[in-house]
Design goal:
It comes from Luteimonas padinae. InterPro entries: Cyt_c-like_dom, Cyt_c-like_dom_sf, Cytochrome_c550/c551-like. This protein is mainly alpha-helical. 44% of the residues lie in helices and 6% in strands. The chain has eleven helices and six strands.
């Protein structure tokens, strides 16, 4: 290829790349409203966005991976934690973390109830944006350290995030073990499989024994009569019985998402029950 041919090739290649870039940019702009569910944006959601900026949440947190990276990415937090948890957390974060133990403590912002309500609506809208799978894994907090789900490398508490390898068979317990790490919201966002490691929810280690003790307790308020029934009830109607502890419920509502009855099939719930019932 001589100089003239090289020059022509460079000009043509640049032109093609420029046209492709402009075309993709134009196409993206035509899709933004659908991808972001723009039709669902209400004045409350807009106010929630203003609250996000007013209190400089981005100085610590990130949305869609953009922000300060000091605290977790909150892109999917509304799915991982749920409305009841988020509202209670925003009212008083100190109830969920111990400053001396965890060192990192979210400051109490003294948000009004309206600000909290609308900020949660904004985060819920954010969680439903079609962001092509970003972030690729939930970025969470455990023991005062940032943890990337399924990667047990950043702290001892991160080991609690790991889901044990699935056995290569059709055992419902194996399938349930996989669901524990893949269901939406992902169970590992709040529950550890390690004894004594408490995250946003109680550890699942010893679940079978605790379930039997709970059913036998006079304080039990649910309707289950056996261990499997209690675990199933905890998944599909989590507020039927509230586990004691300020971190697990508020105003008679469990922080456990109540959407699994819709997002999981009956068979999948049975598989999760089989797995959790095997946690001795």
């Amino acid at each position: 290829m001589n100089k003239r041919q090289s020059r022509i090739f460079a000009i043509v290649a640049t032109g093609i790349a420029a046209v492709a870039f402009l075309g993709l940019t134009f196409y993206s702009h035509t899709r933004f409203d659908d991808l972001t569910n723009a039709a669902d944006i209400t004045p409350e959601i807009t106010h929630g966005k203003d609250v996000w900026h007013k209190y400089n949440c981005i100085n610590c947190h990130t949305l869609f991976g953009e922000g300060a990276y000091y605290a977790p990415d909150l892109t999917k937090i509304a799915q991982h934690r749920g409305e009841a948890y988020l509202k209670a957390y925003m009212r008083d974060p100190s109830q969920f973390y111990d400053e001396q133990r965890h060192r990192r403590l979210m400051p109490t912002q003294d948000l009004s109830e309206v600000e909290i309500e609308n900020l949660v609506k904004f985060l819920d809208w954010v969680s439903k944006v079609d962001n092509q799978g970003w972030p690729p894994r939930p970025i969470l907090v455990a023991g005062g350290s940032l943890v990337v789900a399924s990667q047990g490398t950043e702290s001892g508490a991160a080991e609690a995030r790991e889901v044990r390898p699935v056995r290569p068979d059709s055992d419902p317990r194996a399938i349930g073990e996989n669901l524990f790490g893949t269901a939406v919201p992902v169970c590992t966002a709040c529950h550890s499989l390690q004894p004594g490691v408490q995250l946003a929810g109680p550890s699942m280690a010893g679940m079978a024994e605790r379930a039997a003790q709970t059913i036998a307790s006079p304080d039990y308020t649910g309707s289950a009569t056996d261990v499997e029934g209690y675990i199933r009830e905890s998944i599909v109607t989590p507020s039927a019985h509230l586990v004691p502890g300020a971190m697990f419920s508020a105003e008679g509502t469990s922080f456990m998402p109540n959407t699994y009855a819709e997002s999981l099939t009956e068979e999948q719930v049975d598989q999760l029950v089989a797995f959790l019932g095997s946690m001795k």
